[in-house]
Design goal:
The chain is globular, with a radius of gyration of 20 Å. It is an alpha/beta fold. It has a domain of 140 residues: NAD(P)-binding Rossmann-like Domain (Rossmann fold, 3-Layer(aba) Sandwich), CATH 3.40.50. The longest helix has 21 residues. It has a 7-stranded mixed β-sheet with strand order 1-2-12-9-8-6-7. A 3-stranded parallel β-sheet has the order 4-3-5, sandwiched between helices. Bound molecules: NADPH dihydro-nicotinamide-adenine-dinucleotide phosphate. NADPH dihydro-nicotinamide-adenine-dinucleotide phosphate binds next to helix 10.
């Protein structure tokens, strides 16, 4: 395979002393740095659009009190304003009816100051997710979940593509910068087939001329199939599931997983029990065989918000031209 060359986004992973026999060799793909660069591009694009009298506007709708969703929404709104966009926040209580939510979506669809609409998932059980996502004007669907955008993505037409896979693609193109970001002919294995990550990820890799294999919970011999990959994208939701045995030496590994695990007082560097974030990839073992790897946190996560704002700018450009 084309072994990727470290770029400004990558730094060498330092080998813990206990790993002396099989030292980590992978380069760390720095999602924070990549997202900062993308946000700078978006900010410049917003400023240029402002000269034509248009300020992109992103409306975020949050229902209920889910703590993780609250944090995501707070971060999204902060970054929106930092990029010079207008941010419209709609917080609704858990007992909001589907009809009320659909009415809000209809009013945002009709509002010319709103170019992008994001309804934070998950929704309460009494609201049908599909009905809400399909009600969003596809031109304002900056999450890329509307069927029109999903279909366009599969057909290789112009689409607002889901943010997390788009962020993964950008990290991959950065990693293969020596080949001009060209991924043609590489074998990519995507582990997971959700509508939000796995399926659009496979579509984007196929559009980039990769040979794509998609694994899921019913796949037979997943480790063996994965070991054939030049690029591995893990989006499963199972802490540390992908170990070194799944990885071909020199492969590039993108870890989408965000899992919260308990850490005992003995294992914790603070000496106190705590929860910590880990990916789907067992970082230490995989870093010893891969050529490049994203960390968790600090890898794919920061790219998701940056791509959301890039989609909002794209939506505003299309709606104002
Ligand atoms: P889902 O639960 O919707 O999908 C998980 C997928 O993994 C399913 O397709 C499932 O297969 C597959 N799977 C489950 N177990 C196995 C197994 N043993 N072997 C192979 N495949 C398996 O999750 P999401 O796609 O929404 O998210 C995946 C992870 O990514 C989560 O940790 C989530 O928190 C994280 N995430 C991170 C984001 C970020 O910004 N960094 C954004 C979105 C998600 P099947 O279809 O057969 O059930």
């Amino acid at each position: 395979m084309n072994t990727p060359t470290a770029t400004a986004t990558t730094t060498l992973v330092t080998a813990p002393s206990s790993e002396a026999v099989n030292p980590p060799r992978a380069h760390l793909i720095d999602g924070k740095a990549a997202s900062t660069r993308l946000l700078e591009e978006v900010t410049a694009g917003v400023a240029e659009l402002a000269t034509r009298g248009v300020t992109p506007g992103l409306a975020v709708v949050l229902i209920g009190e889910d703590p993780a969703s609250q944090v995501y929404v707070r971060n999204k709104l902060k970054r929106t304003v930092e990029c010079g966009m207008h941010s419209f926040e709609h917080r609704l209580t858990d007992d909001t009816s589907e009809a009320e939510l659909l009415a809000l979506v209809a009013s945002l669809n009709a509002d010319p100051a709103v170019h992008g609409i994001l309804v934070q998932l998950p929704l309460p059980e009494h609201i049908q997710e599909d009905a809400v996502l399909e009600a969003i004007d596809p031109r304002k669907d900056v999450d890329g979940f509307h069927r029109m955008n999903v279909g366009a993505l599969i057909q290789g037409a112009d689409a607002l593509a889901p943010c997390t896979p788009t962020g993964c693609m950008r990290l991959l193109r950065d990693t293969f910068v020596e080949q001009g970001g060209d991924l043609s002919g590489l074998h990519a294995v995507v582990i997971g087939r959700s509508n939000i990550v796995g399926k659009p990820m496979a579509s984007l890799l196929l559009a980039a001329n990769c040979s794509v294999t998609q694994l899921h919970s019913r796949s037979r011999n997943p480790a063996e199939l994965c070991r054939q990959a030049d690029i591995v994208v893990a989006a499963v939701g199972r802490p540390n599931m992908i170990t070194a045995e799944w990885i071909k030496p020199g492969a590039v590994v993108i870890d989408v997983g965000i899992n919260r695990i308990e850490q005992s007082a003995e294992d914790s560097p603070t000496g106190q029990a705590r929860t910590r974030l880990v990916g789907d990839v067992d970082f230490t073992s995989v870093a010893s065989v891969a050529s490049a790897i994203t960390p968790v946190p600090g890898g794919v996560g920061p790219m998701t918000i940056a791509c959301l704002l890039a989609n909002t700018l794209t939506a505003a450009l299309r709606q104002s031209s």
